[in-house]
Amino acid sequence: MIPLLLALALTAPPELKRAKDRFEFGAYADAAGTLRRYLATSPPLTEEQAIDAYRMLGISEFQLGDQAQARAAFVNLLSHDPDYALDPFLVPPPIVEFFDRVKREHEPALAPLRERRRALREQERLADEAKRRLLAEERARTGPPTKVVRVQERLYLFNWMPLGAGQFQNGDRAKGTAIAAGQIVAGLVNLGAIVFHNQLAEDRTRTCISGQPGCSSPPYSDSDRELLGRVDAVKYVSAGLFWALYAYGVWDAHQHYVPIVETEVAPGGGGGSISLEWAF
Question: What is the mean pLDDT of residues 41-53?
Answer without folding.
Answer: 91
